[in-house]
Structure formats: structure tokens, C-alpha cells
């Protein structure tokens, strides 16, 4: 999943990130507080970019970058850099990619007990060759080890960890049976579930688990695929090229996507966060604005999490949307648009995962969903301004200021009966 | 450089490699005998192959392989598995690719003193995505670190090592100044030089060093590029598609390539080995057949090298070509065609480098050039039958038998005055 943040030149960008002291590092924290559980892919991303125009069929001079990736891994790394210590459940081999991912994982300070290591695993790798315009010219994904080795058996070993978790995130790299086992385990533990669709193809795996899911974070194409999978129809169609979201008003875009959003809400998903790249996000839920209140039972506000909580509570006071009627909430849908932030884009990869990581960290710190998504968008902006999927560190002051800017420009789009 | 060996189904292949005891491993040998010096690239090859037909512009499910590559590294590894202990001079970074290459290098038992390690080096990587037919769909080569860090200064540190070397191999990944420094150093030490052209573009670097070079091993396209570079003209043209070598008799192909070969010989290269893939090789030299006699002053016949020497001397008796007149040898050119061997092809990469490695190992053991190239072709055949660039081990019996088959089918093509 990607979020595109509009490219706006920011001449002060270099100085601006350096001037603020870096206050967050997962390594510095040691505690036994409730922490999120993240189940899904740890993937090595190999990105090759030619320096000159490539002739198809030949090897062109250029640069090759290795990046730690995988949706679940990116979310967990992002959360660790925002002061959380999520518990990762994944699978790696002992090959070059697995060794690199595991070495780098150690620097996050997060537990590696949930990461299955097995010599037979071909560590998941995605190898993409870009063209000079930054588009994928050719790409190969070797990620089937996740489906083969990240089994219900392995996942169910960590049931006790889930009992104290404020939230479980699963990415759709898991097989259908593993997604179901994870969701049933979380439901038994009374733990809310965040579903990250990964890709259009894998997003369809929502079909058997929607009733368990509290949050889902599709982009617009994944939203359409999920609505088709859940309704068992092919009635929803991707946005046409001549209809692309950049040419539409926010309201028109929402009108186009609303029927698909309603399918997800009707099938039991409590909160749908539709990511729209440079157009921001739609945050949609059944019920009135109170459905965006603090959604988790267990919160954790030590060190950076506590500082983030205080800064955001100051910058983005809750209850802004308290004027709406809460009457008959079960039959109502509520939707808000939150804008993206101007950014000096270096690379778009990882931004969607940082949006999820920032939002989840804030939810775990006890912020409400509007506040949390505002933080998520601020964190995603920081991600597009660096080469790696997740920035090496975040500045609390910058995140809090950016979150405020998003929060203040949020706009209620829709508040009416679903009937 | 590639050699294609014709694909012939060999149902016994699996059993056939397993039945012969593996007698060679560089690790088992310890000695202080004269050894070849190899200067050039150590490269990580990343090969990604989709499992299904790929749509351009998207990521497709498939497999990603990491292979130790680089022409010079492949040649050195191949020689180590044939009992030689070549001295490698190269440059690596401390990144993922550099760590992998260095770890694997340790398993060869070869010295790593000549390998410059520097944290600023982006270890050379070639990333290729293939299509379902095995052709390169897109590829990026990031190898400029070799030109930047493998400097004359670094190379000249190893002058004393070269004094006892039977032969120096350089690959054309080196910059022009580094190639010249290497060649002058070898010439001062009285050491013959083997030039491996690497690619059509890099093969042109022959232009300033031809007078120093004893052996060169171009494929037909590299031969044309080298002839154009050396003659300062563009008069030589690559084989046309409708003229491709598969449709030509060996004699016709030689007649087409002969003028380019003559340019290389006239400019001072003593032996030109033109590799023709499944069509075998042309071995060309000025002078009569005696120019193929033992070409190096220092030989090394311990352990596997000695066994290889004895087996090949038995299977491929020298002096087969002694009937020719040695009269007026300085103005004559002598050319022999050596055929390829049927093989069960798994992957063609590395075969050309193993041809060079096999030939150089044999030369260092004291075999003559006809015998050595026969061994080289046998070693190249073993290389195409495995996934990696260099097989994990060679069977002496198989190599000796295959070399005999090549040697017995060699055919003199051309023996006439160059005037």
C-alpha cells in the first residue's frame, strides 16, 4: 500500500529535520507495558535504478539499493521509532536476505522471539527495476515462504502475548488459514484487529475475516477489490484513468468510493481508512463521531509515547466533532477527509506503512482515531522524505506540528443513515 | 562473456556427477608454489525470474537468486576448485553484498589480502530480471566502484606477488589507468598477461594495452569491438542477425571473423581465443603450432594440478600438430577450431569465466595451450550444468574425459602467411 503525498518544494527541509532534537529511539525503552502484536511479512526490498535510459533486454549502468521492507516489518519498525515496542511474528531464512533483516532488526531493540528462523525458508525478497522516471519497469516478488511457514501453529504459540496487547495488526501476506487463526485468537482475547491489505490481489483475503476486523487501511484499488470480494460480486470498478482522483474534488471522489466503503462497514469492519496518496485519507465508520473515541482498552504512555500523547492532546484537542447527534448511531455512517501534507518527496515506498505505524502508535498511546490518523499522516510525510521505507528517527516537535496541521484541516464529508 | 554449449538431453547427468568422487577442493591445499594473480571484479549477481508471464510495469511472483559473480572472481573461484590458489586483487564494501562475497570467499581458502575493503565502497552488484524464456527483461549494473577504488596505487602494492606468478589475468572492469599499471607491472616481472574483455563496451579498453597482452578471450561481438578499437576504425561489423553463427559452417564463420582476429594479432596479442558459445572456440596465434607449446615459465603441479596434468597428458598427447612447418613463423598465423560439448544446460552464466579458469589452471600446471583450452571447454560444460556461476566441485575423471573429447575433435582451420 502506498500513500502519495503531494510534492511541494520545501527549501528548508534539510535544516528543518536536523534542527529538531531526535527524541525517539526504540532502543532506549525497556518496559513491560501492553504492546501491539504485528503478524506479517519481513521482506528485503532490492531496488535497482538505471542512471541512463535503459534499452529493454540489456543491463544498464545504475544503482542498486537494499531496503528492509515488508508491510508488517515496516509498521513495527515505524512504531518502535515512535516509542512503542510491538511484538513481531514473522518468518525468515538463514540466507543473505534473512541475515540482513535479522541484523537490522536487532537495532530496533524489539523482540525477535516471534520470528521463526528456518534454514529451509527462502527469505521473502522483492526485486524491482525502475525506469528513469521512477516507475517499475520489471519486478519479481518471492514471498511465498510467508504463506508456507507463517502457519496457524506458529502464530498460536503467541496467544499469551496477545492477551495483554492493545491491538493486533495482520498484513495480507498471511495465508487465509493463518489470517483466520490470528483473528480468532485476537477475538478470544478481546483484542481489536487492524487489517493491512498489502496489494490488490492479497486484499481479497478480507473475505473470510471481515467480521473480526476493527480497522482496515486499503488504498482505493484495494478498497474496490475488497468490496467485490466481500459482496461476492464484480459490481465495483477501479477508478478509470480519465477519472483519476487528481481531477476530482474530494467530495466527488468520496461519492464514487462510498458504495464500496459501505460494503466493508456492512460486513463488520468498524473503521475504514481509505488512503488516497496526495489526496489524503477518508476515515469512515458506522455511527457518529463518538466511534472515533479512544478505541483500545489498554494504553501505554511511557517515555516517547507519553510525550507524543501530551503534545498531540495539546495541538489537536479532542471533541471537535462532538456537535453531531449520536442518535440512532448503529444505522449511521460518519466520514471525514484528512488532507495530506506538502513534502519534498525522495521515495514514496513505505509511506503507507508509516501511516499505519503512526496511527497505531498513537492509538496505543490512548489518542482518539482522528488524532491518531493525523499523527499517521505526519509520520507518512516524514517517510516520503527519506530513501528508506522508515526514517531512521522522528522528531516529536515536527510530528506534533504536522499532525496539528492535518487535524485542523480535517473536514466532515458524510453523516447520514446507511439505510 | 558467455559460452553457449549446445543443449543435449543427458538422462544420466544426475547420477554421473554423483558417481565420480570429488577430488578437488581449494581448501585442502597448502603450498607456496607459483600461483596466478587475478585482478578484477568481485560482483554480487542478483537474478530474479518470474514464475508466470510478467506484465511490464508490475511486480510478478517468482524467485530471486543471489550468486557470487564478477569475471575475475569467477575465474579465481574456478581455478581454486581445480587445485590452483590464485591471488585475487579486487575491492569490496562492508554492505550486504560485500559481506556475502567475503564470507563466501573465505570458503575458497584463497588469500583475501589483495581485496581492498572500504566502508565507502558500494560493492559491485548486477541485478537482472529475466523473462519466462530466460532472456534479460531488465537489468541494472552498479559496478563503478571497481573503477574508483581498484586504483594503480592499490594494484602496485602487490608487485612482489607478481614476481613469482606464472600468469596475470586482468578483467576489463578495471579503469584504463589500472589496466595499464597492471600490464606494465607484469611486463616488468616477465609475466604473461591474459585479458578478459567482460563486455562489448569494456572490451575496447584493450586499445592501450594490446602490446603487453599474451592471451585475450573475446566472444565474437567483443572481438569486433576490440578490432575496431585497435584499428581506430569502424570497419568491423557485428555478425548480422541473418548471418548468425548457428547457420554458418565453422569455416565460413572463421572467414568472417579472421580479419578482426588478424588486427588483434598484428597489434601484439599472442593468442586470441574467440569464444563462440555452442559453436566452440577459435584458437588463433601468430606462428606455427609451436606457439601453442607450454606458454609459461613457472608451473605448479601439486595435488589436483598434478593429477590434472597427468590425466590430460595421457588423454590428450601433445605434438599432434607437429607436422606443420615452423618455417618463417613470425609472419604466419595458425588457427584451430575446438568444438563445444553436449550439455544439459541449467544456466549459461559463468561458463565463459570457467572456460578461462579451466584454461588458466591447465596452463599453470604446465599443459600446452591446445590441452589447456580443451580442459577449459570441459570445465565450461560443467558450469552450464549448474545454477551457480562456478560448480561447487569438479570431477577430475569427467574433466579429463571431456577434455579428451574436445581435443580429439579439434581441427586446424588456417595456417598461412599474414602478409
From TrEMBL, chains A, B:
Coiled coil: none annotated. It holds the Pfam family PfkB. It comes from the Eukaryota. Belongs to the carbohydrate kinase PfkB family. One of its GO terms (cellular component) is cytoplasm. Residues 36-293, 332-387 form the Carbohydrate kinase PfkB domain. One of its GO terms (molecular function) is pseudouridylate synthase activity. This is Carbohydrate kinase PfkB domain-containing protein. The keyword Kinase applies. Keywords: Kinase, Metal-binding, Transferase. PANTHER family: CARBOHYDRATE KINASE PFKB DOMAIN-CONTAINING PROTEIN, ZGC:136858. Signal peptide: none annotated.
Amino acid at each position: 500500500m502506498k500513500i502519495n503525498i503531494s510534492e511541494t518544494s520545501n527549501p528548508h527541509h534539510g535544516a528543518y529535520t536536523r534542527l529538531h532534537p531526535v527524541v525517539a529511539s526504540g532502543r532506549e525503552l525497556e518496559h513491560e507495558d501492553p504492546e501491539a502484536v504485528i503478524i506479517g511479512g519481513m521482506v528485503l526490498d532490492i531496488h535497482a535504478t538505471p542512471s541512463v535510459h535503459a534499452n529493454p533486454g540489456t543491463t544498464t549502468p545504475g544503482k542498486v539499493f537494499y531496503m528492509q521492507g515488508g508491510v508488517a516489518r515496516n509498521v513495527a519498525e515505524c512504531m518502535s521509532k515512535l516509542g512503542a515496542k510491538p511484538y513481531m511474528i514473522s518468518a525468515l531464512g538463514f540466507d543473505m536476505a534473512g541475515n540482513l533483516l535479522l541484523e537490522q532488526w536487532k537495532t530496533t531493540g524489539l523482540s525477535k522471539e516471534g520470528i521463526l528462523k528456518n534454514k529451509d525458508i527462502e527469505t521473502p525478497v522483492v526485486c524491482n527495476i525502475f525506469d528513469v522516471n521512477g516507475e517499475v519497469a520489471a519486478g519479481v516478488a518471492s514471498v511465498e515462504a510467508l504463506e508456507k511457514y507463517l502457519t496457524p501453529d506458529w502464530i498460536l504459540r503467541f496467544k499469551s502475548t496477545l492477551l495483554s496487547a492493545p491491538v493486533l495488526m495482520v498484513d495480507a501476506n498471511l495465508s487465509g488459514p493463518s489470517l483466520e487463526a490470528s483473528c480468532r485468537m485476537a477475538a478470544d482475547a478481546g483484542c481489536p484487529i487492524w487489517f493491512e491489505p498489502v496489494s490488490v490481489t492479497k486484499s481479497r483475503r478480507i473475505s473470510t475475516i471481515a467480521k473480526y476486523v476493527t480497522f482496515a487501511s486499503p488504498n482505493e484499488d484495494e478498497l474496490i477489490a475488497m468490496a467485490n470480494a466481500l459482496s461476492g460480486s464484480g459490481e465495483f470498478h477501479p477508478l478509470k484513468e480519465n477519472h483519476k482522483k487528481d481531477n476530482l474534488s474530494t467530495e466527488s471522489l468520496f461519492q464514487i468510493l462510498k458504495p464500496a466503503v459501505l460494503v466493508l462497514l456492512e460486513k463488520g469492519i468498524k473503521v475504514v481508512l481509505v488512503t488516497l496518496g496526495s489526496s489524503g485519507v477518508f476515515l469512515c465508520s458506522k455511527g457518529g463521531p463518538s466511534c472515533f473515541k479512544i478505541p483500545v482498552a489498554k494504553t501505554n504512555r511511557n517515555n516517547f509515547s507519553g510525550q507524543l500523547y501530551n503534545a498531540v492532546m495539546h495541538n489537536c484537542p479532542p471533541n471537535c466533532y462532538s456537535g453531531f447527534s449520536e442518535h440512532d448511531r448503529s444505522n449511521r455512517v460518519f466520514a471525514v477527509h484528512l488532507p495530506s501534507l506538502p513534502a519534498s518527496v525522495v521515495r514514496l515506498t513505505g509511506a503507507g506503512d508509516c501511516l499505519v505505524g503512526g496511527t497505531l502508535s498513537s492509538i496505543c498511546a490512548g489518542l482518539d482515531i482522528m488524532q491518531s490518523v493525523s499523527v499517521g499522516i505526519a509520520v507518512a510525510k516524514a517517510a516520503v522524505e527519506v530513501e528508506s521505507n522508515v526514517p531512521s528517527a522522528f522528531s516529536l516537535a515536527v510530528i506534533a506540528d504536522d499532525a496539528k496541521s492535518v487535524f485542523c484541516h480535517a473536514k466532515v464529508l458524510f453523516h447520514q443513515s446507511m439505510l
